[in-house]
Amino acid sequence: MLFNSYLFIFAFLPLVLLGYYLTANRGHSRFAIVWLVAASLLFYGWYNPIYVALISCSILFNYILGIILTHRKTANQRKLVMALGVTINILLLGYFKYTNFFIDNANVLFHSDFNLNTIILPLAISFFTLQQIAYIVDTYRCKINKHDFLEYCLFITFFPKLIAGPIVRFKEMMPQIDKDHMPLLTIENIAIGLTVFALGLFKKVILADSIGSFVAPVFNVAAEGMAMSFFNSWIGALSYTFQLYFDFSGYCDMAIGLGLMFSIRLPLNFWSPYKATSIIDFWRRWHITLSRFLRDYLYIPLGGNRKGIPRQMVNLMAVMVIAGFWHGAGWTFIIWGALHGSYLVINHCWRQLKQKLGKDTERTSLWLTAISILITFLAVVVAWVFFRADSVESAWSILKGMTGLNGFILPAEYYTALGAIGQLMGQIGITFAPLNSFSPYAGILILLSMIICWFLPNVQEYMSNYKPALDSFPGEVVKPRSWLRWEPSLMGVFVIAIMAAVAILGLSHVQEFIYAQF
Amino acid sequence: MKILKFGRYLIYLLLVTLSLLLIVGVINWFINPYGIYDSPVIEGFNALKHGATKIRKAYAVRSIKPCAVCLGSSKVYVGIDPDHPGWECTPVYNIGLNGTNIYEMTRYLQHANAVQPLKEVVLMLDFENFNVPIKNTPDFDEDRFVITYDGKENWWFNIKDTLATLFSIQALLSSINTPVNQVRADLQNGMDDPTAMRNATNAKFGSLHAAFLEDARNAMKYHFTEKYPLENTNTNWVSFDYYRKILQLAYRENIHLYIGIAPYHVYQWEALRASDYWQRFELWKRMLVAINEEEALRAGKPPFPLWDFAVYNQFTTEALPPLGDTQTKMQWWWEYTHYKKELGDIVLDRIFNYHSSSRVVPDDLGVLLTSKNIDEHLLEIQVDRQQYHDTHPDYIAEIEDLAKQLGKWAEPR
Fold first, then answer.
1. Are B51 and B176 in contact (CB under 8 A)?
2. Sign of the torsion angle spanned by Cα atoms B239, B241, B247, B249
3. I need a labelling partner for A452 at 20 to 30 A (CA). Which of A104, A207, A264, B278 fits?
4. CB-CB: which of B3, B99, B205 is closest to A518?
5. Is B247 among the domain residues?
6. Which residues of A are catalytic?
């Protein structure tokens, strides 16, 4: 089921809240937790019930492993069980996510034609796999010693965060759920949660989906192997940059809001990532719970920065390439990861160099900050082109277009419409030609997105009087000015109600097929 | 600013949100931009409706209850007149659908016949309707028909259309646009307002001739990428099965069905030929004839008349204005694809055997096809084509150049 659907908003959510109220708030804590787990499984299996069996087996397997880990005493045995658990989780993910990728590449390599029916990736498997690996490793590290099956089931399946995160730590969620004392629904939490949900829904349905409509035409043209012109390439790359952010962060806001409605606080996952002043900073702000996972369960076990600078750089590269591959089974994702890996390496070297030269790395000015933000942003945009393109060739083609090597083309209609300016533009080398995939609205939306992302407070800042999410890094939420903070006032009612109504009105469309060739 | 208690905030929030939704719903119901509700019609305010033709036509069929329909692609939408005097009953409704395929046509026909048993149907077919589909167009929706494909009653309340036409931003924008834009729209009979096509300029490409070339280029690009299968083994989609379904329905329900192969401008044929689809185009015509006679035999009735208007004559070979000429219009064609109502009228004259004092129906307008004359007929077209090739080498060269530019041109077999 999708958060942005009538079914979820008007049927599923109210019913689950009601059921939870009738159980938890009436003192039937165990029924409440069973209710939530059952609702989450229904949510998960709505489109494909077979997935429920898969996730159930995975939960059972990991839970049993957790028990074994707590009871085994010798270090070697424990290590073996842990390694086995991690491997099996990775194999399961690998089978569903990567089999086709490896077969395709092997076919290319050996000129063979081995064929397997496309394996359909079960929903959320990337996320629940990571969460269970973290659970196994934490148990191995003796950080977890309480194992309750029902609680564990809810920890994995809790529907607000099941499909796409945030990737919650055991230690973050478990203190909040206890099968004998489930948190009670409160009017306050429902009001705040609903507000955050509405903001997220607006981001997803209105911002992400509107700007997203400009992405596919550009990337499709690139996939056809056509030469990309300057303006179109930038429209495609920037539209995707903002689409992805609004989509994913909107989703996480919805997750946080939903969690809070059930009085469970989830960790923050986005912190205005495009305001980052460096790539290191970017990864503390983008998909925070993933970076945290990679740091704690991959980067640090690989040695982190404890084994000298060359090794640290290798570790950074390795982690980011794996992160890329986790996002998707394709070379474009691997390149995306490698790009970010090299950005991080450059960033770390730069810091080291500045420290060696005795420069104060903390000192900064408005100009320096602005330039840092811009450079970081551009580096991220370039990487996103690989992330979105269906092949390395089409990514190249768009990047080449962005440099202006394929010329600067505007639609032919503009030439007359722009009058003297058009002529001037013609003189400086801008061509006017028939161009179907170009829309001036894209420019307006991109500008609007830049203002939102660079100059407005984010949802957590806006809601900071009530802290709807857990800090992923301690002390990260800084409150903006008081008039930029939400309060349950009449003003708040109108702002949120309008956003909620507009978002709900954006859920369905009157489809119109305008192609009239035949 | 006064801070509210959370309970009060929550109630206000829900009330205001729902009220906003309700207001939008009422506005959209009242202005009724897609014409699917029985709300008041105010001349000069919301009498003319725009866009969303696939929704609108499905609902219009339910309110108008036509006894006869013409069915086909946008060529029918633009060129075939439900008010032609040759129809045997009224009201007649035009179910021409943009970018449609034979399956969608079948569904609209089943729908119309279930609403009101049809007496007469004119079915105008394009090669593309059989080959393009693979999937239906995004604005097509099964849930808006009163019966299912298998002829069962469709119990599924049409919630998707209701939500989209009452509670969506897009519908609201259409509602706002409706009173402002009371100029162009479909005619009540479902036909496209001809003034709309008249106003559509091809300024984008410089001239009508250039627009023809651009359309031919796009069509060929499409031919090359889509491969034009007549069936899809993966989805069990066999286009001729749907054609058969239409015939079976018409034979069973005693509908007077007239089948026509739509007129094509010669540029379209040359584009088909240059992308190596001519043989398949001929095969398609043969199949239409064969299946029609097969189903007639099965039903124990004479075959429905099947006209081929895709032949060489003064209409299909009308000369284009020279490149760069932005003023001259063509007599029979709006552009590359769509013929004008004037040609549609002559086509209907021939189909209905109607004699109008103001029009002459030339003998070479079309040929009534049977399994007996199809071979000879296709051969004649080959001869005509050769003749055309000899007399219009520049036109042919234009298309072949385009195909070569696309890089995949093969010497036609």
1. no
2. negative
3. A264
4. B99
5. yes
6. 327
Q: Which of A55, A35, A30, A318 is nearest to A179 (CA)?
A: A30
C-alpha radius of gyration, chain A, whole number: 25
DSSP state, residue B3: B
Q: Which of A39, A137, A42, A50 is nearest to A96 (CA)?
A: A50
Q: Would you list the DSSP string of A443-502? A: HHHHHHHHHHHHHS--HHHHTTTT--SB-SSTT------GGGS--SBHHHHHHHHHHHHH
- Exposure string of B165-178, with b = 16+ CB inside 10 Å and e = fewer, is bbbbbbbbebbeeb
In chain A, the residue whose alpha carbon lies closest to the alpha carbon of B6 is A188
The closest CB to that of A512, out of B52, B160, B163, belongs to B52
Q: Do A487 and B1 touch (CB under 8 A)?
A: yes
Q: How many domains does chain B have?
A: 1
Question: Which among A13, A505, A507 is the top mutation candidate for probing chain B, defined by the most B β-carbons within 10 Å of its own β-carbon?
Answer: A505
Q: Do B370 and B293 form a contact (C-beta atoms < 8 A)?
A: yes
Subunit contact A505:B167, Cβ cutoff 8 A: yes
Chain A hits for B222, Cβ within 8 Å: 517
Scanning every residue of chain B, which has its alpha carbon at the shortest distance from the alpha carbon of A205? B169
8 Å CB contact of B160 and A187:
no
CA distances from B173 to A89, B33, B56 (A): 49, 9, 17
Q: Name the residue among A488, A498, A518 with its Cβ closest to that of B126.
A: A518
From first to last of its 518 residues, chain A has per-residue pLDDT tens of 889 888 999 999 999 999 999 998 898 989 999 999 999 999 998 878 888 998 999 999 999 998 888 887 788 888 888 899 899 988 888 888 887 787 777 777 777 766 666 666 677 888 888 899 999 998 888 888 778 899 999 999 999 998 887 899 888 888 888 888 888 999 999 999 999 999 999 999 999 988 988 888 888 878 877 778 888 889 999 999 999 999 999 999 999 999 999 999 999 889 889 998 899 989 989 999 999 999 988 888 888 888 888 888 888 999 999 999 888 888 999 999 999 999 999 998 888 888 888 776 666 788 888 999 999 999 999 999 999 988 888 898 899 888 877 777 777 667 777 777 777 777 777 777 666 666 778 889 999 999 999 998 888 888 888 888 887 665 556 677 777 888 888 988 999 999 999 999 998 876 655 443 33
Nearest residue, CB atoms, A513 vs list B7, B99, B214: B99
Q: In a mutagenesis test of the B interface, which of A190, A201, A510, A512 is the best target, namely the one with the most B β-carbons within 10 Å?
A: A510
List the one residue out of B347, B375, B406, B393 whose CA is nearest residue B219: B406
CB contact under 8 A, A517 and B218: yes
Residue B229, domain member (yes or no): yes
Chain A residues near residue B126 by CB distance under 8 angstroms: 518
- As beta bridge partners, residue B120 has B68, B256
Q: Which of A396, A518, A357 is nearest to B222 (CA)?
A: A518
Beta bridge partners, B147, equal B153
| Sign of the C-alpha dihedral computed for residues A33, A37, A38 and A42 taken in this order | positive
Return the H-helix or E-strand segment holding B256. Answer: strand B256-261
Instruction: State how far the Cα of B84 lies from the Cα of B95, in Å rounded to an integer.
Output: 15
A136 close to A85: Cβ distance less than 8 angstroms:
yes
Amino acid at A422: G
Residues composing chain B: 413
B154 to A351, B115, B151, B248: CA distances (angstroms): 68, 12, 9, 21
Whole-model pTM: value is 0.81
Provide the residue range defining the domain that includes B86. Answer: 66-157+189-405
Contacts of A498 in chain B (CB under 8 A): 20
